[in-house]
């Protein structure tokens, strides 16, 4: 074997603890970054791949006149890639006894030849039996429904039992678990039979040679005009986000999050490795001198130590690469499960493996280049006279400490902790960063929680009933007159997606909610402008998503809204911040005067006398019972608590990952601190021997090093908590924009529980990180310590 | 031949400057066995460092076998040193993670002047010549001080240097072992090597061809077996 390689290998094995710690630090860094890289590649690719596998429609036209359309001829147009009818209607399904949730029912032309918006068989029949349905697989998670079960479905004002003949998978849909509804699919004939509705009213289309949303919008507009010439009046055009899964935002947030944390793990691992390599190199300085004295050139020395670091990298890679592949796949599967898509990639791109291998092999060497250059550049004389820590290093005096009357041991610990200022700085900053990230995780969580609490407080009703069709108020309230625990009832008109703000819309357009302007059931936080007031203008207040949808109209400007074939110029008077889809709030009185002469309503809001959770749920059930025998066509009955839960479920995955990953960062920084304390101890092994020789007990030395560690830990906590303030503000800003839209801001919030958890966890980590090396410091005999090189 | 002309070495610290060598003029012939003696701080180790190129003089010229080493950079010096000078240290300075044999082989591998095929035999021969052939495959830590120093001498001879320098080579050894080390040096000098030994052991000076005494960085006497030069 090459002697230089042999030396490198033996040097490593002669200090197994140091070597293992470097390898461990590298494993941690590479594993963290590798997991992120693997899951990033898988998730980024597979969400899109799942989505594209369905061949998603780019535009959806709704019209009652499509019987005039020659579909074959339409599909034959050069600009049309594919088109088919996919009728859709909203119903309700009983998922557990007396628990009803919305059912999105699709009527499919031909299950065996779905050209667009494909669904895939999971179990049971691929093609549903006549008058039965297929349930999207995520629905199983929010219900007791399975293949062969026959749930009750409320179609309009009638209840029917519809057999489930199979489970399918539709990765293009937003996960049913997060929105608490069920997607179902049936064939066209069964759709007609089940719903009693006319078919071929909803045309889904995919266009050729479109490259952006603007392209689709332009072509769609042209198609609407063309339809009009053939007598087809299009009532709505929905254009989803171009080539983007509905929950891409969630994935983007997650990927950004794990990407940042993975990067941090890598940086912290790198700091750790460079510190450890520095310590190893410190122990090798005299040997470098010897080697130079017997004829080794600087390049030869450099090669020997690079070889040593390559061995370390290879050892770390052997563990970290398979581990990061496993955890990367596992994490990708976890996220895919939450977002209801499959990980379909079977082989990762070669570049992932190459990156991981190169990172493992080269990271320690690259991180140590400056140390190696410095070490190998040391003159023979300096190297031969090197005995470790500089004898000229002295602790700084802090006069105020004398006034604290600290013990000699504590004073010594304070002085010792700042003997190597550069290491102390790196350790403190790494640990402080870990503390700051961990604390920020809690603060962001608190911000989101306060947003939800605020949302709950803004919506002051306890249960809301939304009808599929607007009907007279008396008719709607008739079956609901004898309910118990009802303090107040208010009726509104509008609802999500019920009224399209314009024919050509993206993301379902904005919903309009017309409600009494002096309502006490909705107290929105106005972040710009004001709430609705009596006016001659048709005043509207937009939430930030609606503002974004309409390109941020200035306050006071007139916004032309297309509602029910009428264009109304609405005066924008305020903006509100909500974790909601695009919504426009208007005064019901004005709305009725302009658009709703019959004073119809479609939303009934109830305030409970006793709004304890159980009482509210009981009220919801009694509402369900009351409307069951009635002819009301219900879209959904939902309690506020459930609504908040649904929103929380949307955020939960992000919050959980945020806390988990920030905990990992803290863990890595604690390992960094442990290693720094370990290096301090190694460097001062002779000093420990001297101290023991002059009478220091093992307990004294143990306590000295634990005190040193805790001093570092305390400085880090203080610095970290201070750092967490600007970091939390930045994170709140970022997550707010990502989740609520560009004009929204998540308000900074301080999490008291997070503060104490951070404090406790960091102190425990710090204590463990000090205790382990301190224990090793007292395990060596005085003789061994004195003769340590 | 080793020639030093007007060699001065000044160490500069923040607080003060210290002249370790002051205008040293010296000539050492091939095959001479020379001792450099003096009290602690007299400048003898600094002088040795100048001769081996481990340190550079502040002033003056150092020539070894017609090579002016004052103008070489660190890498050139390392390569030159490996080929021309063998160094023996007071604390042996063997690589602790290599066996005795491997220590010698490493010196050959680094300098690369001895053909590969000859290295193993040469290393064993060197161990034989210093009297520790049976210790070839042992780690340095398992050898006695005397054996480690013999191993260090064998390593210093690995690349067949013309000059051998030893810094307090017997300072850590008992008198009997020290005597045996001196006899190795004597025989090497007889074989044509120039041997310089830094020592503070006045008692052993009689074994040298010449004894150079330093005091406060200056040569105060040069004595040989045949009398003062």
SSE layout:
The complex is a heterodimer of chains A (789) and B (229).
Chain A: H1 3-14, H2 16-53, E1 59-62, H3 71-75, E2 80-96, E3 99-108, E4 120-124, E5 133-136, E6 152-155, E7 158-161, E8 164-169, H4 176-179, E9 182-187, H5 188-195, E10 202-207, H6 213-229, E11 236-239, H7 248-293, H8 298-338, H9 350-367, H10 369-377, H11 380-384, H12 399-403, H13 408-417, H14 421-458, E12 463-472, H15 473-477, E13 486-495, E14 504-506, E15 511-515, E16 526-529, E17 538-543, H16 544-549, E18 558-563, E19 566-576, E20 583-587, H17 588-595, E21 600-608, H18 613-627, E22 634-639, H19 640-683, H20 685-693, H21 698-740, H22 752-779, H23 782-786
Parallel strand pairs in A: 3-9, 5-8, 11-14, 15-20, 17-19
Antiparallel strand pairs in A: 1-10, 1-11, 2-3, 2-6, 2-10, 4-8, 5-9, 6-7, 12-21, 12-22, 13-15, 13-21, 16-19, 17-20, 18-19
Helix pairs in contact in A: 1-8, 2-7, 2-8, 2-9, 2-19, 7-8, 7-10, 7-19, 8-9, 8-10, 13-21, 14-19, 14-21, 14-22, 19-21, 19-22, 21-22
Chain B: E1 2-12, E2 17-28, E3 33-38, H1 44-52, E4 59-64, E5 67-68, H2 74-84, E6 85-88, H3 100-111, H4 116-129, H5 145-156, E7 163-167, H6 175-190, E8 194-199, E9 210-215, E10 218-224, E11 227-228
Parallel strand pairs in B: 3-8, 3-9, 6-7, 7-8
Antiparallel strand pairs in B: 1-2, 1-4, 4-5, 9-10, 10-11
Shape of chain A: elongated
What's the CATH first level of chain B? Alpha Beta
Architecture of chain B, according to CATH?
Answer: 3-Layer(aba) Sandwich
Major beta sheet summary of chain A? 12 strands, mixed
Span of the ends, CA to CA of chain B: 17 Å
Radius of gyration of CA atoms of chain B, rounded to a whole number: 17 Å
């Amino acid at each position: 074997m090459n002697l230089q390689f042999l030396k490198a290998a033996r040097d490593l094995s002669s200090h197994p603890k140091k070597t293992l710690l470097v390898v461990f630090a590298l494993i941690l860094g590479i594993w963290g970054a590798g997991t992120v890289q693997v899951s990033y590649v898988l998730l980024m690719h597979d969400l899109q791949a799942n989505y594209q596998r369905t061949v998603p429609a780019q535009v959806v036209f709704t019209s009652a006149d499509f019987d005039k359309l020659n579909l074959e001829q339409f599909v034959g147009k050069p600009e049309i890639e594919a088109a088919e009818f996919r009728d859709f209607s909203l119903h309700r399904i009983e998922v557990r006894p007396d628990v009803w949730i919305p059912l999105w029912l699709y009527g499919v032309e031909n299950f065996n030849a779905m050209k667009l918006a494909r669904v895939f068989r999971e179990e049971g029949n691929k093609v549903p039996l006549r008058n039965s349905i297929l349930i999207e697989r995520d629905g199983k998670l929010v219900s007791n429904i399975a293949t062969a079960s026959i749930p009750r479905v409320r179609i309009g004002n009638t209840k029917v039992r519809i057999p489930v003949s199979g489970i399918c998978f539709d990765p293009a849909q937003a996960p049913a678990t997060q929105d608490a509804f069920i997607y179902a699919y049936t064939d066209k004939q069964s759709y007609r039979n089940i719903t009693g509705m006319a078919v071929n009213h909803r045309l889904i289309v995919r266009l050729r040679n479109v490259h952006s949303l603007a392209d689709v919008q332009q072509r769609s507009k042209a198609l609407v005009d063309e339809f009009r010439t053939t007598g087809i009046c299009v009532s709505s055009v929905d254009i989803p986000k171009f080539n983007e899964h509905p929950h891409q935002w969630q994935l983007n947030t997650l990927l950004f999050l794990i990407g940042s944390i993975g990067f941090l793990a890598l940086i912290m691992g790198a700091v750790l490795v460079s510190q450890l390599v520095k310590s190893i190199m410190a122990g090798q300085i005299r040997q470098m001198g010897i080697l130079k004295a017997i004829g080794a050139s600087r390049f030869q020395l450099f090669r020997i130590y690079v070889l040593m670091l390559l061995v370390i990298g290879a050892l770390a890679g052997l563990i970290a690469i398979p581990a990061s592949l496993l955890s990367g796949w596992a994490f990708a599967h976890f996220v895919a499960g939450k977002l209801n898509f499959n990980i379909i990639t079977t082989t990762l791109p070669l570049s992932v493996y190459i990156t991981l291998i190169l990172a493992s092999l080269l990271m320690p060497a690259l991180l140590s280049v400056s140390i190696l250059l410095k070490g190998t550049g040391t003159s023979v004389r300096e190297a031969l006279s090197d005995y470790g820590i500089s004898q000229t290093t002295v602790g700084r005096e802090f006069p105020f400490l004398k006034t604290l009357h600290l013990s000699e041991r504590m004073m010594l610990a304070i002085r010792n902790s700042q003997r190597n200022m550069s290491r102390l700085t790196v350790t403190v900053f790494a640990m402080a960063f870990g503390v700051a990230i961990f604390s920020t995780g809690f603060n962001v969580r608190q911000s989101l929680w306060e947003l939800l609490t605020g949302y709950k407080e803004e919506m002051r009703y306890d249960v809301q009933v939304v009808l599929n069709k607007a009907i007279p108020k008396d008719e709607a309230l008739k079956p609901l007159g004898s309910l118990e625990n009802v303090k107040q009832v208010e009726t509104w008109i509008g609802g999500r997606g019920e009224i399209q703000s314009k024919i050509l819309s993206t993301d379902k357009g904005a919903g309009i909610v017309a409600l009494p302007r002096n309502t006490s059931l909705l107290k929105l936080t106005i972040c710009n402008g004001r709430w609705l007031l009596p006016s001659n203008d048709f005043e509207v207040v937009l939430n930030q998503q609606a503002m974004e949808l309409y390109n941020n109209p200035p306050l006071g400007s007139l916004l032309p809204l297309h509602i029910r074939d009428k264009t109304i110029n609405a005066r924008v008077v305020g903006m509100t911040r909500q974790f909601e889809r695009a919504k426009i709030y208007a005064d019901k009185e004005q709305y009725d005067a302009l658009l709703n002469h019959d004073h119809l309503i479609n939303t009934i809001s109830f305030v409970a006398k006793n709004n304890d959770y159980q009482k509210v749920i009981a009220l919801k059930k009694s509402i369900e019972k009351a409307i069951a025998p009635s002819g009301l066509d219900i879209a959904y009955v939902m309690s506020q608590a459930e609504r908040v839960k649904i929103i929380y479920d949307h955020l939960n995955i992000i919050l959980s990952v945020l806390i988990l990953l920030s905990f990992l960062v803290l863990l890595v920084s604690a390992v960094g601190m442990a290693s720094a304390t370990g290096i301090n101890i190694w460097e001062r092994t002779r000093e420990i021997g001297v101290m023991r020789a002059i009478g220091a007990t093992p307990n004294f030395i143990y306590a000295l090093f634990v005190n040193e560690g805790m001093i570092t830990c305390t400085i880090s906590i203080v610095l970290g908590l201070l750092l967490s303030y600007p970091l939390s503000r930045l994170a709140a800003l970022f997550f707010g924009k990502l989740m609520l839209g560009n004009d929204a801001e998540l308000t900074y919030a301080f999490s008291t529980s997070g503060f104490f958890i951070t404090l406790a966890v960091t102190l425990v980590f710090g204590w463990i990180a000090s205790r382990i090396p301190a224990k090793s410091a007292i395990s060596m005999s005085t003789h061994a310590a004195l003769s340590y090189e | 031949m080793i020639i030093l002309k007007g060699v001065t070495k000044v160490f500069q610290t923040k607080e003060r400057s210290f002249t370790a060598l002051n205008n040293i003029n010296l000539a050492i012939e091939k095959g001479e066995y020379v001792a450099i003696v003096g009290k602690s701080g007299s400048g003898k180790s600094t002088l040795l460092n100048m001769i081996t190129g481990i340190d550079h003089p502040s002033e003056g010229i150092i020539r070894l076998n017609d090579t002016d080493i004052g103008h070489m950079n660190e890498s050139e010096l390392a390569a030159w040193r490996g080929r021309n000078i063998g160094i023996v240290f007071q604390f042996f300075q063997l690589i602790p993670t290599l066996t005795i044999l491997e220590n010698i082989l490493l010196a050959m591998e680094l300098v690369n002047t001895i053909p590969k095929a000859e290295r193993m035999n040469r290393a064993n021969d060197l161990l034989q010549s210093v009297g520790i052939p049976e210790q070839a495959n042992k780690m340095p830590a398992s050898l006695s001080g005397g054996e480690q120093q013999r191993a260090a001498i064998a390593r210093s001879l690995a690349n067949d240097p013309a000059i051998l320098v030893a810094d307090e080579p017997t300072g850590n050894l008992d008198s009997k072992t020290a005597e045996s080390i001196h006899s190795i040096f004597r025989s090497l000098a007889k074989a044509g090597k120039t041997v310089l030994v830094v020592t503070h052991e006045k008692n052993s000076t009689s074994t040298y061809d010449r004894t150079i005494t330093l005091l406060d960085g200056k040569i105060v006497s040069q004595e040989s077996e045949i009398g003062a030069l």
